[in-house]
Automatic annotation (TrEMBL):
Organism placement in taxonomy: Eukaryota, Fungi, Dikarya, Ascomycota, Saccharomycotina
Keyword set, alphabetical order: DNA damage, DNA repair, Exonuclease, Hydrolase, Nuclease, Nucleus
One cellular-component annotation, GO: nucleus
Site feature: Interaction with DNA: S533
SUPFAM superfamilies tied to this protein: Phospholipase D/nuclease (SSF56024)
Gene3D superfamilies cross-referenced by the UniProt entry: Endonuclease Chain A
Entry keyword Electron transport: no
Name the UniProt record assigns to this protein: Tyrosyl-DNA phosphodiesterase
Entries under PANTHER family matching the protein: TYROSYL-DNA PHOSPHODIESTERASE 1
Keyword Nuclease: yes
GO biological process, one term: DNA repair
Residue numbers binding substrate: K245, K510
Stretches with biased composition (Basic and acidic residues): 69-84
């Protein structure tokens, strides 16, 4: 992919590098299997899938079985092949296709009355001009742009009323008018996802590492649903992870919605962890074909043309997959009008990145960056740098340091991204000193006690990864440094006292924000799939340079108050983000009175934050292994 002067060259695309390996395991609690996310620093070698070829059905008898066809395709005829996850997946697909073909050749049965009625209703859909029931971006234009994902089981367990204004998984994929969905994720349990789908003829495209560790699809699902898989293994370097959690949904009325969220598509992630999402407005198709490439122009203004910049950056991200099927998705989304969108797309994609002229990176014509470079770029373009306050990072994984010493991507890189001035990367011996340095690093991380009190007890912490010591001495050096910045997930002792309503639901959400007035307001807010990990954000190649390597695919949305479209702000008052708890809207009835317009931003955690005491222990490995 070439980006020249902010314009995307749609004819090419390339990039590659590294990230943390991930596997999928099953853990049993109370006799019920649950799919759990596990991270690993070990290298995982995944064989590349051969190019697909057309399988010709021959009339000679006996007909070739799917297994024999696969062997012939490889030129080995009867020679046994090594069984790989990709091969098993292909064979499942071939066998399902064969069964469907068998059903098609059977004599047609006369439809019963119920089937006839369904056929009439299906054909009448277009004539009735039925509008799909789609989830709005927010309750109103002054409500939170990000939503908590509902968890009725958790609320019932602790007797809480904490799901107000939340979005359910059914809201995201349950429309009867859903005809096509692209699911980008790390772990996909398709059979769990399909429980929430009601559309009869939806077509699924699943994008992840398509091996048995990351993708679960039962044999009968291949027959029942139209499923396509895109294996991204070849795009991932050592320790690389396809960590993006995103949906692109197309509906019968020619509308489209994009969903960015924090949840692996598994039952465990859905039920025992705190999750959030952003849902785009209902995007309409451009009426004029000439508008399809409205994003592909220089000098786009992030403030005045936020939606077009989102579209440009979104397509730039998709191009890095270098995949023909994803290119078809690009062709589709290019047809849509993104102007209603009022947030910024911030993503990471594997590759080596180097920039020499800092001043050009904040010009309107500058090309979009990836990783921590993009966060730095957006903050500086919008003039949101800080000389004071707290940078609050709340994640579910803290990976190893950037080097053999103790340099951490949050303390030494992200803090520099939000501060005024240079360099972007701090030296390894940097330590924050109150009243001397600019922005204070604050990390929200659950204690052992908090996890053990969570809804699934120790199982709640299975997806929380932090190595406090290990074979690599740098783990211990990093932990001894960053634990000084640790704050608890919740500041209350009882679930019913939690303002956010998620105190006993372990976090899997990842958020970053700056507050300069101790959470009275937020300067900006980022919800993303990216943890505190140099694999996700980028590993600096040196001090005071903008050169780094990214290993993983990540995606998130950046919310800045001045970009938000608020119809009720008729007097163009200064817009500010105000934290909300347990609801999406600002409680203040006079939120439009005075000189400011208050816009809600829902926090998943409670404030004021409570710093670790001397007796608090962080949930970390290897100590937490004792519970399993």
């Amino acid at each position: 992919m070439n980006l020249s002067d902010g314009v995307i060259n749609l004819e090419s695309g390339s990039e590659t590098e590294e990230s943390d390996g991930v596997t999928l395991e099953q853990s049993t609690t109370g006799g019920k299997a649950q799919v759990i996310e596990i991270s690993s620093d070990e290298e995982v070698t995944v064989p590349q899938e051969p190019e697909a070829e057309v399988v010709h059905l021959r009339s000679e008898s006996p007909p070739a079985t799917p297994v024999e066809q696969a062997r012939e395709k490889a030129g080995e005829k009867r020679k046994p092949e090594e069984s790989t996850p990709q091969r098993q997946l292909r064979l499942k697909l071939a066998e399902a296709a064969e069964r469907r073909l068998h059903h098609q050749n059977e004599p047609a049965k006369k439809p019963n009355k119920r089937q006839q009625l369904h056929s009439i209703e299906k054909n009448a859909t277009v004539e009735l001009k039925h509008r799909a029931k789609l989830l709005p971006t927010s309750i109103d234009d002054r409500s939170s742009r990000i939503r908590l994902i509902s968890n009725p089981d958790y609320c019932a367990q602790f007797g809480l009323v904490a799901d107000k204004d939340t979005a359910s998984l059914s809201d995201l994929v349950g429309s009867k008018d859903l005809i096509r969905t692209y699911q980008f994720n790390m772990l996909i349990d398709f059979d769990y996802l399909s429980r929430f789908v009601t559309s009869k003829d939806v077509e699924f495209t699943l994008i992840n590492k398509s091996d048995d560790d990351h993708l679960h699809i039962k044999d009968q699902s291949w027959e029942r649903y139209k499923i396509h898989t895109i294996d991204v293994s070849s795009k991932l370097p050592k320790y690389g992870t396809h960590h993006t959690k995103m949906m692109v949904n197309f509906y019968r009325d020619d509308t489209c919605q994009i969903v960015l969220h924090t949840m692996n598509l598994t039952e465990a992630d859905h039920k025992i962890q705190t999750q959030m999402c952003w849902v785009s407005p209902q995007l309409e198709m451009h009426k004029d074909v000439n508008d399809w490439f409205d994003f592909n122009q220089p000098n786009l203004s992030l403030v005045e043309e936020t939606g077009l910049v989102f579209k440009r950056d979104f397509i730039a991200y998709l191009l890095t997959y270098e995949n023909n099927d994803i290119n078809k998705l690009i062709d589709q989304v290019a047809k849509y009008d993104f102007s209603p969108i009022d947030v910024v797309f911030v993503a990471s994609t594997p590759g080596h990145y180097q920039y020499t002229d800092r001043n050009k990176l904040t010009n309107p014509s500058s090309k979009p960056m990836f990783g921590y470079g993009r966060l730095w770029q957006v903050i500086h373009i919008l003039k949101l740098q800080s000389l004071m306050g707290k940078l609050v990072g709340q994640v579910s994984t803290i990976a190893g340091p950037c080097d053999n010493w103790k340099r951490n991507v949050f303390v030494h890189v992200l803090t520099s991204c939000v501060e005024k001035g240079y360099p972007i990367s701090k030296k390894a011996d940097y330590k924050y000193v109150a009243n001397k340095n600019k922005v204070e690093p604050v990390i929200i991380w659950p204690t052992v006690t908090e996890i053990l009190k969570s809804c699934a007890a120790p199982l709640s912490g299975i997806a929380l990864h932090l190595t406090s010591r290990g074979k690599w001495a740098a783990y211990e050096r990093q932990f001894s440094e960053i634990k000084n910045y640790f704050h608890k997930w919740s500041c209350v002792d009882e679930p019913k006292l939690s303002k956010a309503g998620r105190s006993n639901l372990a976090p899997h959400v990842k958020t970053y924000t700056v507050t300069e007035d101790n959470f009275k307001t937020l300067k900006w807010f980022l919800m993303t799939s990216a943890n505190i990990s140099h694999q996700a954000w980028g590993k600096p190649k040196g001090y005071n340079t903008i050169e780094y390597d990214i290993c993983s695919f990540e995606a998130g949305i950046f919310i800045a108050p001045q970009l938000l479209k608020v119809k009720s702000n008729l007097e163009n008052k200064t817009q500010i983000l105000e934290p909300t708890y347990g609801r999406d809207s600002v409680v203040d009835e006079h939120s439009l009175s005075g000189s400011v317009c208050k816009i809600g931003l829902r926090l998943p955690y409670d404030t004021p934050l409570k710093k670790y005491t001397a007796t608090d222990k962080a949930w970390s490995q290897p100590d937490s292994d004792q519970f399993f």
